[in-house]
Specification:
Blueprint lengths: L7 H23 L15 H10 L2 H19 L2 H24 L4 H24 L8 H32 L1
Amino acid sequence: MKKNTISAKTIALLAMMIAIAMVFSYVESLIPINFGIPGVKLGLANLAIVAALYLLDGRQALLISVARIILGGFLFWNFASILYSLAGGLLSLAVMILLKKSGKLSVVTVSVAGGIFHNVGQVIVAILVVENLKIAFYLPVLLVSGFLTGLLIGVVSRIVLPRVKRAFQNS
C-alpha cells in the first residue's frame, strides 16, 4: 500500500497561501469600489489560487480554494455567497487545471479563462436557485468582467510567480 506523504515545507506553503487568500478577501471586502454591476469584484484572492496552481498542484490549489471560500464565507459573507463562490471557484479551477495541463498556454491565458468561468459557474447557480433563465442576459457583462479581472490576476501572477518560486526553492 502506497502512503501519501506531504513535506512540512509544502504544508507551510499551503497554510501561507490560505492565509494570503483570506487577507486578500478581507482587503477586497474593504475596498469601496462599486463597478455599478452587482457581484463584480477584483478577485484578489484568486491570485493565491493561480499561484498555488503553478507552485503546487491542482489538488492542493483545490484545497486552498475551498478553504478560502468556506472560511471567507463565514467571516465576510453569507451562505448564499458561499454557494455562488463555490460554484464559480470550482468551475474556474477545473478549467484552469485542464488548460495548464496542456502546457501550451501562459499563466495569463489560464487566469483569464479562470476569471471567465468563475462568472459562468455563478450564473449557472443563479439560474438554478432563482429558476429563471433570464439571468443569463447578465452573462455578457460578467464575461467582460471575468476577462478583465482574470487578465489583472494573470499579469500579477506572471510577475510574482518567478520570485516566489526562487524564494521557495532557496528555503
